[in-house]
């Protein structure tokens, strides 16, 4: 017989923990490396580990009881995936709320790289195609207006695709309800890699209509920014 406490845990708490992540496809155009991998007792165990580290996504191998997370992810064309035996899970969300929304920036490198390129829904192959680039300056930023206040789960950033991906470093993602007072959603120390897909998990309870990406110095280069909301 299960004790009442165990029944309550199984009935209410376990489904709640698992609902924080959804199964998602893993496209062959992404390559991973540098992952942390460990044996676990169950999917719930894997979810608990990733919750503790505020991870956006992870892999679970049910046959081998393996959990994998904290990967460096690169966007590469025609890459064969090694994850046939794995199921990918990602933080629950309603989807990308930044697509084709109004954007601003601290500066623009030139007319070929406006801030709107980072929310056009196109993942580019080179920086010459549909990437935003700022002037080289202190604290350059890019900002999107989501239209209404959302609860924010995480922000996914596609770094420059041809070279100088290391410029994306000491980055902060900030959120604001009014566009005046911003709070830190999450950060990325870096340096980034060329073609890297960077997921920044927001602290629980983060909400805002405006989301800003900012670095300390250099050109800010963003090929696509996706804001996943609840």
Tell me what you see in this structure.
- By secondary structure, the protein is mainly β.
- It folds into two domains: 4-92, Hepatocyte Growth Factor, CATH 3.50.4.10; 96-229, Sandwich (Jelly Rolls).
- It is 11% helix and 41% strand.
- It is built from two helices and 19 strands.
- Strands 2, 6, 8, 9, 12, 13, 14, 15, 16 and 19 form a ten-stranded antiparallel beta sheet that branches.
- Strand 13 and strand 14 form a beta hairpin.
- The protein is globular and about 50 Å long.
- The N and C termini lie far apart (38 Å).
Q: What structural category do the secondary elements indicate? A: mainly beta
In terms of DSSP E residues, the strand content is 35-45%
CATH class categorisation of the largest domain: Mainly Beta
Task: Tell me about the largest β-sheet.
Answer: 10 strands, antiparallel
How would you name the CATH homologous superfamily of the largest domain? Galactose-binding domain-like
Query: Total strand count, please?
Result: 19
Envelope shape? globular
Q: Which architecture of the largest domain does the CATH hierarchy give at level 2? A: Sandwich
Spatial separation of the terminal alpha carbons: 38 Å
Radius of gyration: 19 Å
CATH structural fold name of the largest domain: Jelly Rolls
Mean pLDDT: 88
Helix fraction, binned, reads 10-25%
Unreliable residue runs = 4-14
Number of helices: 2
User: Helix and strand succession?
Assistant: HEEEHEEEEEEEEEEEEEEEE
- The structural domain count equals 2
The quaternary state of the protein chains shown equals single chain
């Amino acid at each position: 017989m299960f004790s009442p406490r165990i029944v309550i845990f199984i009935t209410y708490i376990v489904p709640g923990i698992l609902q924080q992540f959804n199964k998602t496809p893993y496209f062959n155009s992404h390559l991973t490396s540098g992952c942390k991998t460990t044996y676990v007792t169950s999917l719930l165990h894997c979810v608990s580990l990733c919750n503790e580290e505020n991870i956006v996504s992870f892999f679970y191998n049910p046959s081998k009881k393996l959990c994998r997370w904290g990967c460096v992810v690169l966007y590469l064309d025609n890459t064969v995936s090694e994850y046939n035996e794995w199921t990918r899970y990602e933080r629950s969300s309603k989807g990308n709320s930044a697509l084709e929304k109004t954007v601003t920036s601290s500066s623009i490198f030139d007319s070929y790289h406006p801030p709107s390129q980072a929310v056009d829904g196109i993942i580019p192959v080179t920086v010459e195609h549909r990437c935003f680039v700022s002037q080289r300056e202190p604290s350059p930023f890019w900002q999107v207006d989501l239209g209404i206040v959302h609860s924010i789960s995480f922000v996914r950033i596609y770094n420059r695709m041809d070279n100088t991906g290391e410029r994306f470093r000491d980055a902060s993602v900030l959120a604001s309800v009014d566009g005046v007072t911003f709070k830190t959603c999450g950060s990325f120390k870096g340096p980034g890699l060329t073609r890297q897909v960077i997921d920044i998990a927001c602290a629980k309870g983060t909400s805002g209509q405006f989301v800003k990406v900012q670095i300390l110095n250099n050109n800010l280069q963003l090929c696509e920014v996706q804001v996943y909301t609840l």
